[in-house]
Amino acid sequence: MSLDSSSESFVFQKIGEVHSPFPSKFGVPRQPNLTPSIVTKIKFKDDFRIQTALKGMEAFSHIWVIFVFHKHGAKDWKATVRPPRLGGSQKMGSLASRSPHRPNPIGMSVFPVLAWNFEAKGGVEVSLEGGDLVNGTPVLDVKPYISYTDSVEEASLGWAQKPIEKFEVRFADGVGENFKSLLSSLPQYGVESFDSLREQISEVLSLDPRPAFQKTKNALSESSNEGRVYGFDLGAFDVHYRLSQGAFEVFEIVLKDESFGPVKSK
Amino acid sequence: MSLDSSSESFVFQKIGEVHSPFPSKFGVPRQPNLTPSIVTKIKFKDDFRIQTALKGMEAFSHIWVIFVFHKHGAKDWKATVRPPRLGGSQKMGSLASRSPHRPNPIGMSVFPVLAWNFEAKGGVEVSLEGGDLVNGTPVLDVKPYISYTDSVEEASLGWAQKPIEKFEVRFADGVGENFKSLLSSLPQYGVESFDSLREQISEVLSLDPRPAFQKTKNALSESSNEGRVYGFDLGAFDVHYRLSQGAFEVFEIVLKDESFGPVKSK
Q1: What residues are paired with A19 via a beta bridge?
Q2: Cα–Cα distance for residue pair A258/B53, rounded to 1 Å
Q3: In contact, B230 and B24? CB cutoff 8 Å
Q4: Residues A57, B158: C-beta atoms closer than 8 Å
Q5: Rounded to 5 degrees, what angle do the CA atoms A184, A185, A188 make?
Q6: A155 near B CB under 8 A
Q7: CA-to-CA dists, residue B86 to B83, B120, B164, B178, B222, angstroms
Q8: Are B149 and B142 contacting, i.e. CB atoms less than 8 angstroms apart?
Q9: Spatial separation of the C-alpha atoms in residues B218 and B112, rounded to whole Å
Q10: Taking phi first (over 0 means left), then psi (-120 to 50 degrees means alpha), and beta for anything else, what does residue B202 get?
Q11: pLDDT digits (tens, 9 = 90+) for B18-75
């Protein structure tokens, strides 16, 4: 392909798809490295040339994933956004943020690689540590992370300097009891053990996955919001929690989507 | 836009265009940070919404540029490439490299920002330090560089560990004399001074901009190649050099393309 530089638009093909425990954009962490116990998988197209093009990737510890924000929920792009990090009160240019609401909804995230499976049925699979991607996210490109070109530790951070706030997460007595009969079948939903599920829930919940307007309107610190109930989806499960003495308290975990499991071969 | 996750292809619009001193892919450095005296400019579309979307970017020291490899010179993508860093002799999967020859020709580079000009006629302009982009490269996205998500200093580098070799560059006596009459008009071709041009030439030439087959066939270290002559384009100029005692010696600089100058407003 030798494109005319006067071309105004460009067409790209999906080379793979994300399998993650986030069925929708709600609750998805803003960065992959905030939830290290989450596993993100990419299932590449069942295409011999793609398989060949990936050879050599297994030697790199970290990779870039270039993807499409396919479920950002807006019809048009936005010129300004209200970054959650600024409390949702200040406007910022969308290109001056990492928001999905940008002229071209292209995203990029760096992930530590857990394992490559070149022999997987139905196409090469890679497991990545952490996750900020919605299940089904189309992948356009992967690139090796090369620290001498990609790493700028001293970069100054503009408005993004404010540290991320983490909230306390507790589990009410007896959580787990409520789905006792399921505990032994957790692996079929892509979860190793109840401890692993607890860890994943804690990581996601500590970041306050509530929509921005809820965070503002129903601040965790306000005692008048005590006991308010919310839920979020994580893989096959619906996690119910309440605001409790300045922390999030999980009181119930319900199996919601039995079709949601580990990446399956075709 | 809420795309069906079953979509196989995605269309993106150009939001701006690169202005750089590299008229073609020949001689373009493999990383932006190897040629810090080169200035890369992006001229954004003359569109009020794009201008608004960029507000806030001026607070970040570094930005990502997501672009299209529009002149990689191949009709189809390649499953394997021969990375120059491996001497052009070993094959590697194209996705396991940063080569332009990949399923979707999307590139990304991080640049230190020199200056934003929001008042520029014909659209916002940004000047960036360094350059690995061909003039006319279509830009799809820019993002703030955020070190706590993007910087992984300790990433292990697979096959890309080999350090980049830099070669000695000399200037023959009287270089500059040959275009004496032009020296005073250098700024109109986007170059501050002759010293600045020398520095740019040195940086590009020290990386050996010759095509891979020339590097292998006519190694700089071979005395039988003494005196062999080459040229490369840098902005408005054609730089002529020869192999000389294990170094590159520039012996002539010719004005080639008078239309090549600093970014002009429409």
Answers
A1: A41
A2: 41
A3: no
A4: yes
A5: 145
A6: yes
A7: 5, 43, 10, 38, 19
A8: no
A9: 35
A10: alpha
A11: 999 998 877 788 787 888 899 999 999 999 999 999 999 999 999 999 999 987 767 7
| Chain position carrying tokens 């900020």 | A132
Which residues numbered 168-227 in A keep a CB inside 8 Å of some CB on B? Answer: none
pLDDT, tens digit (0-9, with 9 covering 90-100), for B117-163: 999 999 999 999 998 899 999 999 999 999 988 998 888 887 777 77
The single-letter DSSP state of residue B97 is S
Q: Which residues of B60-76 are buried (b: 16+ CB within 10 A; e: fewer)?
A: bebbbbbbbbbbbeeee
Half-sphere exposure of A16 (CA within 13 A, CB side): 29
**Across the interface, do A140 and B104 touch by the CB < 8 Å criterion?**
yes
Domains and CATH numbers, chain A: 16-158 (2.40.30.70), 165-255 (3.30.2310)
Closest residue to B95, CB basis, from A9, A53, A160:
A53
Q: Which of B1, B11, B56 sits opposite A11 (nearest CB)?
A: B11
Task: Please report the beta strands in chain B, taking only residues with DSSP state E, as ranges in sequence order.
Answer: 9-13, 16-19, 39-44, 62-68, 80-81, 92-93, 106-117, 125-129, 138-144, 169-171, 229-234, 237-244, 247-255
Q: Tokens 């540029």 map to which residue?
A: B65
Give the number of other Cβ atoms within 10 Å of residue A228's Cβ.
15
What confidence score (pLDDT) does residue B58 get?
94
